[in-house]
Amino acid sequence: MYLLAEDGHLKSDTGDTPTHSYTKQFLQILEAKMRGSSSVQGKQTSGSVAGIPDSTYNGITDMMRCDAQQNDATYGVVVGTGTGAESNTDYKLGTQIATGQGAGQLVYGPVSLVTPAINGSYVDFVITRSYYNGSGNNITAYEFGVYVKVGGSYIYCIIRDLEADGKTVASGDTMTVQYTLRVGAGFTIQFLLFLYSMFRCISVYGYDTGHTSQLLIFSEWEHGGGIYADNAQLFLVAGPWDNWYFYYQNTQNFGILVGNAGAATGVITGVTNPGGGKITVNCSAAHGLGPGQSVTIAGTTNYDGTYTILTASSTAFNVTKTYVSSQTGTWSLPSDDPESLSDYKLQHKITGLTYLGTNWVTTTEVAGNDDLVLSRGFYNSTEDPIDILEVGVAWISLYWHSYGDQAYYMILRDVLAGAVTVDLGDTATVRYTLRTNVAV
């Protein structure tokens, strides 16, 4: 947070300080979107409690909108004079400062949102808003927060912070508040890209699990004087599976997924020449590999080495190498594949387990934290033990008007410290807890 004087010079800058409180509504909105269910109850800034509009086919125009324009103080980054302690049950600022140039008012500028990007060991999503004091008197702001708009008219507070000493804005000065939403390894950049596109309600591209650049979120279009969801989509980890959603039950494409990173090997049956300084490596069976992954080739005369996959089909992949002749050998994945912010898929998804349905524990306050818990079981009906070495969560982006228009995005990926062996007849359960709390 920083202050600019009327002549434009910098008067003060607090630098980066930790945000103290995501509110319960943040996880509740994510839950509604991931479940595709409007049964999740959330408290609006008005104090009214109602089902949060989900992301299904009911014509929602605002997924989680935060890009408020000039003089719109109903949502976006907001400021106030309240001094009450932060709490994860906060649903609004204590006393919000109104927009304008009257007594006690600040002129709210437009909200600026910067596309999430990898910044060293983190992915950062930056949200900024400025406030001009034209009231003729000093105004001191003590509380700061973020409001989002869902479904056109539902306003929710997802962040509220208290600055104990306050920030005084002299008449003629401008205060700028900047929030950086940050995630580290385990999360992927796709998670914050989803938030960014929901905050702006625009189409944003990200890599799906096939390493294809695909739209993450819907775009909007004007029709007949109103705003409608052009490509209304679902953002589901798993749904209630009633009516026509049921056919996605037990999918291995989204929800909690499991893999065996570093355990995959296969047989190379031959090599062909596609031209352009590349070779096509043909495999004896489906390999589960994708573009961008590293693969090691061994047992050949001319092609041994480690390569980055350029493109792949179900039983073949292309790498950069000068073609010599067709040869046989083996392929394998590197033994160590740690989490990366740019991960877009599990290294090698396990398909030999039966993927059971996703279970939810709705957003609940637990010892001062807000927890959203999702879990999934994986049953082994095969003859051999199967080792789980990596787990993750993928979302689906689905155009409701066409069952064929869908893509999957990895938002979480974790490599386990040791293998979890699932024997014949056993069920392994993976549980994720998304947690927010105060003063983290």
Question: What does this entry look like structurally?
Answer:
This protein is mostly beta strands. The protein has 3 domains: 199 residues, no CATH class; 112 residues, Immunoglobulin-like, CATH 2.60.40; 68 residues, Elongation Factor Tu (Ef-tu), domain 3. 5% of the residues lie in helices and 46% in strands. The protein is built from 2 helices and 29 strands. The strands form 8 sheets. The chain has a 7-stranded antiparallel sheet, with no helix packed on it. Strands 1, 2, 6, 7, 8 and 11 form a 6-stranded antiparallel sheet that branches. Strand 9 and strand 10 form a beta hairpin. The two termini are 19 Å apart. About 9% of the residues have low confidence.
Give descriptors for this structure.
440 residues, six-stranded antiparallel sheet, Immunoglobulin-like, mainly beta, elongated, seven-stranded antiparallel sheet, 3 domains, single chain, Elongation Factor Tu (Ef-tu), domain 3
In short:
With 440 residues, the chain is mainly β.
Largest sheet: 7 strands, antiparallel
Number of domains: 3
Amount of beta strand: over 45%
For the secondary structure, the number of strands is: 29
Percentage of residues in helical conformation: under 10%
Poorly predicted segments: 217-249, 399-404
N- and C-termini, Cα separation? 19 Å
How do the strands of the widest beta sheet line up side by side? 21-20-24-18-19-23-22
Secondary-structure class: mainly beta
- The best one-word shape is elongated
Look at the structure and give the mean pLDDT. Answer: 81
| Alpha plus pi helix count | 2
CA radius of gyration is 25 Å
